[in-house]
Amino acid sequence: HRDPDMLVKTLRRLRRRVDVNTEVGVVRDIRLKELRIYTDYGRCSRPLFIVEKQRLLIKKKDIQALQQRETPEDGGWHDLVSKGFIEYIDTEE
C-alpha cells in the first residue's frame, strides 16, 4: 500500500464505527514494514475512552443520558462503543 498510515487510520476508524468488528486488532510494525490485522476471537484487549485533540469525545450530556435511562436495554455500554466514545485496543497496538 502506498500510504500505510492512512490505511491504519481508516481501519481503526471503521472499527470505532463498528463497521469492522471491535475485536479486530490493527497493528503496524514500522521496523518490519508490516501491517498485521488480527481477526481471531478471544484476543486480549482493553476498552479505552477516545480522545481527539486532547479532549474526550464523550460529553456530560452523554453521561447524563446514560444515568437517566429506564432499562438496561435503553443503551449503555454497547451504545458507547457504537457511537465511537469507547474503543477496544489490542494488547499489541
UniProtKB/TrEMBL annotation:
It comes from the Eukaryota. Its EC number is 2.7.7.6. The keyword Transcription applies. Residues 1-52 form the RNA polymerase Rpb2 domain. Keywords: DNA-directed RNA polymerase, Nucleotidyltransferase, Transcription, Transferase. Signal peptide: none annotated. One of its GO terms (molecular function) is ribonucleoside binding. One of its GO terms (cellular component) is DNA-directed RNA polymerase complex. One of its GO terms (biological process) is DNA-templated transcription. It is an enzyme of class 2 (transferase). Pfam families: RNA_pol_Rpb2_4. Belongs to the RNA polymerase beta chain family. This is DNA-directed RNA polymerase.
